[in-house]
Amino acid sequence: MIKKLIVGLTLAAMFSFALANHFKALVHTKLKDYAKNSYPEKIYVQTDKPYYALGDDIWFTAYLVNGVTHKRSDKSAVIYTELINEQDSIVSRRELFADHMAVAGDFKIEKNFKPGKYLLRAYTNYMRNLDESYLFQKEIVIWDVNTDTEETNTPNSSAVKKLKLDSKTAKTSEISFFPEGGNLVNGLTSKIAIKAKNNKVISGQIKDNEGNFITQFETKHFGIDLINLTPEANKTYYASVNSNGKEAKFPLPKALPNGHHLRLVNLGDRIIIKVTANHSIGLKHTYLVGHQRGHLIYEKFESNVTDEYTVILDTKQLKDGVASFTLFDNNGKPVCERLIFIDSPNNNIDVQVTLSNSKPRPREKITMHLNLKDDNGQPLAGQLSMAITDLDAIDQKTTSENIKTYLLLNSDLRGTIENPGYFFEKPNDKRRSAELDLIMLTHGWRRFKWTDLLYGPPERMKFEAEKGLYFSGYTTALESGKTRKPATARLTFMSAQVHQEQQSTATNGTFKFGPYIFNDSIQALIEARTDHFKNEKSTTNRNLSIYLDKKYYDPPKIVKKEVLKPVISDKTKITKFKTQAKAISEIDSIYLESATQLDEVLITAKMKSEAAKGTEELNERTHYGHPSKRLDLADHENFRHLPAINLIGHLPGVTTIGDSIYIRTKLVTEIYVDDSQVEVSDIIHMTGQEIDFIDVLTGVSATTYGNSGSGVIVIHTRTGMFISSNIERKPGIVNFTAHGFYSAREFYSPDYDDEFTMSGKRDLRTTLHWEPLVELSKTDKNTHEVSFFTSDSQSTYGIKIEGITENGNPFCHLSTLEVE
Predict the structure, then answer these.
(1) 605-684+687-721 — its CATH code?
(2) Which of 233, 229, 144 is nearest to 193 (CA)?
(3) 309: which strand partners?
(4) 41-148 and 348-394+766-820 have identical folds
(5) Which of 348, 558, 678, 715 has the most other CB atoms within 10 Å of its CB?
(6) What would the mean pLDDT of 467-477 be, rounded to a whole number?
(7) How far apart are CA 734 and CA 545, in angstroms?
(8) What is the mean pLDDT of residues 120-142?
């Protein structure tokens, strides 16, 4: 009998050991695949300012990285950036090609934009496989400095307010409780983070179900406090808050009778990990895993019967950022999870800024040298961008979001952390490290769930990573637009040098050309033949319809959550900014008016004759005579970057709301492009680069197009070759405009050494200089030189440098420049 028992126990131990090895192998395999193959991508966007005025330019740099290593992503090279207004309309869009880790871009804020809070959104096509909260989203405030409104001029307040509670109206959502590791367990002492809604200050007491006092708390900074509690069997607990003599009760989570507990203490250079349990077999066959963005940093399988153990983990060789520790029970189920932030001094980066003149005067040239050093003074390779702004007018706070706080904190945690720069203002500050640890207790890891990673089905990626521009679609039989038919397809670019590419479609008629890399727009042609292009004598060879996919052009749903919001609280700076912006606008208007008057005096007769001639030439392209209203893009070159829908809105008497067009109050249903009738969706991605002029037809002129009592919009393209992707010009052929990547404009900075620079015009720039792309390499002197001139403002300027090293360490540098 004893021998049988021993044999049984041995077999059970062997079986458990085999299961443990299998589970460990599963964890290793899934983490390795996540880090190597299915890793997410992250984007961060630095802008030159946190807020703007109508008529301003938004200068930005977009950084695209591997979400695990924070090095350059090997997946995507295409970044979509969008400016979205409060009505959720995309008012401007840029498609950028990132051949390195970063790429420059810009948006022009038109003066007809409505002031308010805009959303700057950036993403890759591959990032769309996750929900919209994973896209980069940043709030941009735009003011109309001529007509202030209460809504757009009320700054965000970061002040912490006292909460006034009434027992009749108090809700449990006002206070949240976060036990360390996930659950309270009877008999096991646990830390509990208490989080007040909206970061409010709440003071109160923790009591048991009999009203006995246990401890007290007060949520202060970030609305968080920490208590210790050892739950007892048959007892429940609540937070008691008094306000005006009334008690409001907030129940704590109910403790489990049996379970596990995971306790971590972060000492900076090391982490103390304590694991406990009150099961009959204790921690036997449990598995502790520590990972950082998918890389395994610690593991421990407990094979003995024990109620607790302690581990000390050295963090000196770890990367900075959020690390996650998970305890699995003997069934492979995750039962405890705890986040902790690693901030190793070994990862510190020294951004060195040397000025040729530390206290320059107005309109004086400055030469700046930039380089990167590691903690040992060795040169580092990387990319960075730099904004120099007037601190009297621009509220640049050290507590605000930056590339380091975003990549290491907000992008990996659920919810948004306000003022994240606060935790990095003072290196090695114990108080702030402790507060950051409280943040780790109240925010969960957002990148994956263990149950999905280990046991879920393989992820199906609906959206592919893009290395360039692709043109895809499918062919159908001409007689039946729904019957797919295989064919031979050919793509032709009508550029200066005609480029052609040919391929056989799949059996279901699908084709895909690309990737291509080019800027601006090119007229393109896709043809299809049932046989091949050499057999043009066949009468049925062209009996095909071609449909182009639109999936690459349909933007993701706009969801305004997980948005980075600027800290705008200094009313003095805001007032200064508006005053300065208004002065700049008035100065520009005076010089524009002077230039116009001068032109009229010198060449009035010539201008009139050219205008008349131009009108006649445009009218010759129409068949309806004179339009009611016309927008000639030759007279508005600064409109060339605008979408067609925005250009239509510039016409007198025409209003656009979203993708609806109204003449006066009537909805327009008749839209034509080069005499081909189209839908609004067909012109949504056209821009002024493709358009010569737009006409509005009402009354008699509109009758040319039949029953069009609400009016007609007619768009005439620069080449006359426009055809939307779902309009068939003829069987077996479709023409369209291939939109290339956007090329960022160059930031204008006056050169006061040049005698032709307008010396009489006042220079009040709030952005003194913008340097979008600086690439530093270890192979050269590791120094980049930047030169610019100061303005007329005697002020203190903030130098904000953001970037990321070649090995994936983000950094942010803040310093000042005095102009006397």
Answers:
(1) 2.170.130.10
(2) 229
(3) 275
(4) yes
(5) 715
(6) 92
(7) 9
(8) 94
